[in-house]
């Protein structure tokens, strides 16, 4: 590990001589067998260093100073001048940040049309690694920007923060936890230590259990209570217990191997507590052939637990109480609550508090439902894909490190150029759920108001993410990104499509047609179409302002060789780590989510009042503690439903008994 660390420092030295991103030959991908052995225990020194990454340091900072040969020395030395406690320096107070702010003036005199003429620049900004082609040349950056961004990364101790994450340090300081989702896709021969324990055997114990169970269900050895094989799965969960698995499922459905493996099987998700979602998830499902997987890290999430109780009733109503043992299994870190719910702990698949919900798709959260649908072996390919990017992220020098470069582009766009949003635009229908998943990964992680030490951020963190697959997005919101606001775009293209259509008489295949748009859109955003050009095209004067394009709108183009289980794992890990890089630079905790709590507490108060109002037939009043607006709105709502199902509820499936 230490020599890997040195590798990063050597990259930094090179940077200082030559300027970042340029003149640095891409390091070859690290061959699997040739990787550095992972340490089994974090050294006391490592622990101390990484703790400092996450918390205000309190202990004397002398160790690395004394040992000038330590590879940790550079990191320690750069943090030594950081004030502690309430005086802790924000990254925005540093010379490196200010230099970038100053540099914006220079960038504002450039235009992408001209920057794209410089082939040397473009060459330096095109990176290829792990089979992923990544073109940053349509970012509003010059070689100098790259150099300044690398200096910022070094100032933020990025390399050391990455290492702290991989070393199982408690970088999620407000919850006093590691953020070690990388361990959920560790290879069996790896060793990753959290709190003194190598967790890789634990991870594989659960994966082996998933393999065994999914094989039994898929082969029909595990039968339902009436003796029928279980060919349907309903996965109940929300947020991180839903979006990642949905993304992967959507990505694989039409992939030929995955399609073959899932022949005759159905996987559905039930996330929203809206009874419409219940109705849709259960529609035409034969309970005799249905396995329900309740996925919840905490096993307390209100929506998930109500949906779980709803579906449990649905099963019992039709198959009797014994159905639960054969038709319901769980994924959770809270095995006590799983048992209390009535699911046999033998049928529970655990994970750990060091896996954040939104980072949990590679744990049993995603692996169980997806292995049931596609078979464990294919899903292992998905894990290996994610693992390949983990290795890349940990070992590659910063200037060739894809998640680092992508993260730095985001920081540049958000914090210096002032573009708060990002569009995720896969030119691949199979990736249609990437944007919703990354919305949670990115916005729940980096939408913070304070830094990791609890001090208000002097700048805004996070990006507003959204997106749709091309070409659908083109016929929807691209007007705004071409002529309205500047929204940096991620274009994601695929070389070999999962499906092939090429009609006789057409000049291109359907996939070529799709990809023609992928190539065209990035340039359409970058280049301008000025009034002179329009005039030369005989555009009437009154239309010229409407048809003018200012261009200079940044984008990133990413190309994957195919959309397979492996590359889906790669793209997932690429975005996860990009988000971490942004948080590490901004100096925030990307692994907690306190902002989601307040709404849950208020909803609980509303729920109690609603119950009283229903059962005691009374209206809500200001004395219930709500403001005028909410009180009035609730009464309007309750009045409109007085005829329905109340005061006594009764079980209805699906919700079809409303008058
Ligand atoms: O409310 C947000 C959240 O806590 C997410 O972070 C999480 O992914 C989701 O709820 C679901 O939580 P659980 O898996 O515990 O049900």
TrEMBL record:
One GO BP annotation of this record: glucose 6-phosphate metabolic process
InterPro entries hit by this protein: G6P_Isomerase (IPR001672), G6P_Isomerase_C (IPR023096), Phosphoglucose_isomerase_CS (IPR018189), SIS_dom_sf (IPR046348), SIS_PGI_1 (IPR035476), SIS_PGI_2 (IPR035482)
Catalytic activity annotation: alpha-D-glucose 6-phosphate = beta-D-fructose 6-phosphate
Organism superkingdom: Eukaryota
Keyword annotations from UniProtKB, A to Z: Cytoplasm, Gluconeogenesis, Glycolysis, Isomerase
Keyword Glycoprotein (UniProt): no
Family as reported in the entry's similarity comment: Belongs to the GPI family.
Name under which the protein is recorded: Glucose-6-phosphate isomerase
Taxonomic lineage from the root: Eukaryota, Viridiplantae, Chlorophyta, core chlorophytes, Chlorophyceae
């Amino acid at each position: 590990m230490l020599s890997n660390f040195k590798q990063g420092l050597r990259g930094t030295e090179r940077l200082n001589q030559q300027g970042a991103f340029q003149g640095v030959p891409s390091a070859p991908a690290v061959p699997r067998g040739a990787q550095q052995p992972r340490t089994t225990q974090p050294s006391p020194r490592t622990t101390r260093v990484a703790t400092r990454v996450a918390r205000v340091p309190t202990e004397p900072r002398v160790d690395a100073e004394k040992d000038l040969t330590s590879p940790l020395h550079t990191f320690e030395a750069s943090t030594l001048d950081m004030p502690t406690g309430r005086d802790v320096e924000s990254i925005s107070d540093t010379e490196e940040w200010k230099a970038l702010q100053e540099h914006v003036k220079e960038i504002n005199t450039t235009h992408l049309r001209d920057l794209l003429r410089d082939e040397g620049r473009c060459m330096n900004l095109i990176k290829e690694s792990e089979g992923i082609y990544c073109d940053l040349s349509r970012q509003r950056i010059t070689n100098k920007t790259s150099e300044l961004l690398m200096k910022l990364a070094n100032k933020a101790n990025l390399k050391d923060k990455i290492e702290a994450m991989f070393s199982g340090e408690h970088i999620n300081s407000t919850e006093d936890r590691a953020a070690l989702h990388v361990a959920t896709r560790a290879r069996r021969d790896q060793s990753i230590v959290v709190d003194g324990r190598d967790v890789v055997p634990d991870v594989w114990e659960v994966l082996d259990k998933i393999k065994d169970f999914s094989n039994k269900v898929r082969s029909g050895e595990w039968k339902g209570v009436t003796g029928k094989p279980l060919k349907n799965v309903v996965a109940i969960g929300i947020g991180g217990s839903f979006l990642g698995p949905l993304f992967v499922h959507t990505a694989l459905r039409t992939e030929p191997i995955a399609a073959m493996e899932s022949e005759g099987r159905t996987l559905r998700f039930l996330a929203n507590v809206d009874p419409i979602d219940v109705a849709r998830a259960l529609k035409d499902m034969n309970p005799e052939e249905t396995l329900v997987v309740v996925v919840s890290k905490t096993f307390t999430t209100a929506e998930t637990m109500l949906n779980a109780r709803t579906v449990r009733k649905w099963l019992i109503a039709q198959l009797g109480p014994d159905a639960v043992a054969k038709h319901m299994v769980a994924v959770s870190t809270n095995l006590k609550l799983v048992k209390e719910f009535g699911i046999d702990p033998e049928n529970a698949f655990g994970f750990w508090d060091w896996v954040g919900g939104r980072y949990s798709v590679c744990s049993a959260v995603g692996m169980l439902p997806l292995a049931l649908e596609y078979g464990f072996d294919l899903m292992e390919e998905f894990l290996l894909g994610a693992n390949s990017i983990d290795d890349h992220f940990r070992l590659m020098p910063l200037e060739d490190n894809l998640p680092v470069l992508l993260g730095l582009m985001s920081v540049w766009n958000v914090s210096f150029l002032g573009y708060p949003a990002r569009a995720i635009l896969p030119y691949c229908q199979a990736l249609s759920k990437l944007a919703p998943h990354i919305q949670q990964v990115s916005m729940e992680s980096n939408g913070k108001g304070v830094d990791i030490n609890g001090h208000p951020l002097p700048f805004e963190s996070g990006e507003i993410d959204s997106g749709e697959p091309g070409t659908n997005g083109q016929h929807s919101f691209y007007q705004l990104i071409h002529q309205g606001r500047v929204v940096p775009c991620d274009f994601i293209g695929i070389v070999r499509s999962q499906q092939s259509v090429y009609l006789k008489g057409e000049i291109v295949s359907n996939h070529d047609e799709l990809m023609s748009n992928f190539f065209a859109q990035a340039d359409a955003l970058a280049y301008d179409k000025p009034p002179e050009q329009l005039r030369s095209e005989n555009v009437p004067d009154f239309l010229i302002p409407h048809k003018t394009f200012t261009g200079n709108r940044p984008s990133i183009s990413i190309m994957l060789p195919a959309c397979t289980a492996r590359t889906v794992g790669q793209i997932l890990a690429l975005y996860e780590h990009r988000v971490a890089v942004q948080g590490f630079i901004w100096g925030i905790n990307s692994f907690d989510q306190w902002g989601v709590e307040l709404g849950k507490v208020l909803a609980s108060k509303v729920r109690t009042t609603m119950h009283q109002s229903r059962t005691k037939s009374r209206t809500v009043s200001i004395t219930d503690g709500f403001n005028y607006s909410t009180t009035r709105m609730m009464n309007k709502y309750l009045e409109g439903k007085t005829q329905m199902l109340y005061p006594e509820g009764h079980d209805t499936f699906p919700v079809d008994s409303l008058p």
